[in-house]
Amino acid sequence: MPTQLQIFPSIHIPLPRDAIYRRLGYREGTTKIDARKREEIDRHIDYATSLISLKGAGLRVPLRDVTPHRVVFGTGAEIESDKLARFLKGCTEALLIGATAGGAVMDAIRGDTEGGDMTRGVVVDAAASEMTDAALDWIIGLFNRLLTREQARLTKGRFSAGYGDFLLEKQRMVYDLLELHRIGIKINENFILIPDKSVTAVAGIQG
User: Fold this and answer.
1) Residue 114: its H or E element
2) pLDDT score recorded for residue 30
3) Which of 50, 56, 98, 187 fits 200 for a cystine, CB–CB 3.0-4.6 Å?
4) Angle at alpha carbon of residue 155, lines to 158 and 70, rounded to 5°
5) Domain locations in the chain?
6) What residues contact residue 68 under an 8 Å CB cut-off, 6+ apart?
7) pTM (2 decimals)?
8) What's residue 96's pLDDT?
């Protein structure tokens, strides 16, 4: 059966400014940007951070069986996926994780898009995406530190529903196990998380 669900109602991380610039297409040493433009972008990034409220959840789930084509969790849930099975080969448990940037930042992005401030909307969108990814990294880092006490570790990388043959519909299972409604995330009939800057993923635990 699953171990205790960990809910993180407030995640504080260093601002991934360089990653945000890279998402916007700027490359250090190759892309020139004048001081005025950089000041504008930084102002928009700071605006985004004032709206983003990072939250997350994590849950260790035993693996009952991993075959070349299927993963069976200790909960009894099954996922038919060659790619996920390959990713979790040799693991004894899986770590389910989820994170969100909250709804306020998405409201701001929509407002900028509809109001014609496309530049700010694009920057805020990039900032929200990178900060949500960074929140997942924060959760992974936390569990990795805890796992060292057990002489275990997480697999490198993570795997999300909707990638390859890990069907998006399986996101419902991850959503339910993580109880993501507790951090303000909803899931629609197409298995899309709401608000948009919300993500789930699976990592493997190697003993």
Assistant:
1) helix 103-115
2) 77
3) 98
4) 70
5) 6-206
6) 82, 85, 86
7) 0.92
8) 98
